[in-house]
Amino acid sequence: MNSILDLEPKELWFYFNEICQIPHPSGKEEKIGKYLIDFAEKRGLDASMDKVGNVLIRKNASAGYESAPSLALQAHMDMVCEKNEGTLHDFEKDPIQPYIDGDWVKAKGTTLGADDGIGVATMLAILDSKTIKHPALECLITVDEERGLTGAQHVEKDWLKSNYLLNLDSEDDGRFCIGCAGGIDTIAFYSMKEMETPKDVLFIKLKVSGLLGGHSGDDINKGRGNAIKILSRFLWNEKKQYAIYLKQIQGGNLHNAIPREASAIIAIPFKDKENIRISLNQYIATIESEYPEEPQFSMDLESTDASSTVLNQEQTNSLINALYSCPHGVIDMSREIEGLPETSTNLASIKMPDETTIIISTSQRSSVESKKHNIKNKIEAIFMMSGAEKVTHSDGYPGWKPNLNSRIKDIVVKSYVNLFGKEPVVTAIHAGLECGLFSEKYPNLDMISIGPDIISNHSPAERCSIPSVARYWDHVIKILEDFK
Ligand SMILES: [Zn+2]
Q: Please, how many CA atoms are within 13 Å of residue 389, restricted to the half-sphere of its CB?
């Protein structure tokens, strides 16, 4: 067997192979969008495309399901485009080349796009079938999920008529998602207030490095160190003992990553040269004992070139106060789902992009909308109190609060137990999903997310488990059959 066209279920792999032939990078979905509309028209199905390119295909209920409530199936048509170094591949023109390796389907040198091509192929196989039993279906296929959920963000409020939605964008066989976190980013701007460097000072550079970092949602509850927090705590301790003047401070990069590195250039009185070394050694020991999960942590001190100006005492103090007091990490845990962070914030970066400005960024998440705003407002208050010129927030995206009384969850779980004789895991994630945006537009929409095993998605190592696709397909068919 060397072609994915020989795999079971044949109808699903056939459409997955079709999707691989059509370029579909995020933001460039015209070709796949046209394919989907043509597919529907050829089969006499009602299809429409909205102004951003999302596609909705409707299919009537099969015989015996006329009185069942209609069900929306949903997946995204775009894929992350990553290739191995040395792979010649133009994602806007060249087909993805899927191949079989043992129990896995992989792509030659590139991402496979099983995230979420499997979801789209599932819908096409169902829409094409004359034998599968199902209620009235609305198949919603969104654009540009991977770059920031923008397709889902633009879905019109009255487009979907169904009260139930089955999202096909999970990557874990037997693990279903019933909730996600919303997010919002905050940026504080400070104008630098400088003064002439005082006499008898020494310039030193402090650097925190070697931390694990990680995703600000998935990894926020793992007890990892934040380089900016570790650095600012040291500076705060030191400024209680002698005068410190900040010259430069920076750390972190992406808003959704926990900062792994941070550094500061400070001026301290010459006479405290030895004191800071002693305190640093003690401090390193403290951090090492507080963060056993960070074996690579290091913090170094070295002298550096003198500078004619530094931030004045007031601004030095207020910036260090702001960074030290700004919360980072889990703020509250979910009451509904054990072990799930509900509200969190990531102190993501501090930068000095030019000679005049200091910018601090944070990123908040919560599955409870009001709590997302509460933590973002608290952070704004801290920055305003410490002399920020202005604090702005992104538009953000809403969370999806888990509903343990969900009817679609009960159907999905029951059909899984009936098929496989074991209980699935029902959980929620502390990161964004398209379902969060749907829950804002359609407050009564009852949703759940499922999918087969897809590993290393968003990288050229992406692979999709063949046996799990077969189980997932049987499950989807059973859900449709049970949806009365
Ligand atoms: Zn996806």
A: 9
What is the pLDDT at residue 405?
Answer: 94
CATH fold match for the domains 4-180+400-482 and 183-393:
no
- In sequence order, the β-bridge partners of residue 360 are 188, 350
Note the pLDDT tens digit of each residue in 421-430: 999 999 999 9
User: Which residue stretches of 223-361 are H helix?
Assistant: 227-239, 273-290, 313-325
The answer to whether the beta carbons of residues 136 and 60 sit under 8 Å apart is yes
Marked catalytic residue, from 145, 185, 342, 440: 145
pLDDT exceeds 70 at position 1: no
Q: How far does residue 115's CA lie from ligand 1's centre (Å)? A: 5
Task: Say yes or no: domain 4-180+400-482 is CATH 3.40.630.10.
Answer: yes
DSSP 68: S
Domain limits of the chain? 4-180+400-482, 183-393
More confident residue, 414 or 337: 414
* Ligand 1 center to 145 CA (angstroms): 7
- For residue 480 the two structure tokens come to 């449709």
**Pair of tokens at residue 20:** 């691989």
Q: What backbone phi and psi angles, to 5 degrees, belong to 240?
A: -75, -20
Between 457 and 151, the higher pLDDT residue: 151
Strand partners, 365: 183, 344
| Lookup: tokens for 263 | 């550094």
How many angstroms is it from 434 CA to the middle of ligand 1? Answer: 9
Could you tell me the two tokens for 70? 């209609």
Q: Is the pLDDT of residue 254 over 90?
A: no
Q: Residue holding tokens 């899984």?
A: 416
Domain 183-393 coded CATH 3.30.70.360: yes
238 CB-near residues (< 8 Å, 6+ apart): 244, 268, 276, 279
Give Dmax (Cα) for the chain. 89
d(CA 136, CA 131): 14
Is-cis flag, bond preceding 354, omega within 30? no
Residues 481/134, Cβ–Cβ less than 8 Å = yes
Which residues are CB-contacts of 78 (< 8 A; sequence separation ≥ 6)?
Answer: 24, 25, 26, 27, 29, 32, 143, 144, 145, 146, 147, 151
At residue 255, does pLDDT exceed 90? no
Q: How far is the CA of 448 from the centre of ligand 1 (A)?
A: 14
Give me ligand 1 centre to Cα 302, in Å: 45
Task: Spell 263-272 as b/e; 16+ CB within 10 A means b.
Answer: bbbbbbbeeb
- pLDDT tens for 325-343 read 999 999 999 988 889 999 9
Question: How confident is the prediction for the chain on average, in pLDDT?
Answer: 96
Band (2; pLDDT cuts 50, 70, 90): confident
Cα–Cα dist 247/236, whole Å: 15
d(CA 20, CA 31): 12
Q: List the structure tokens of 6.
A: 């020989």
Annotation says 78 is catalytic: yes
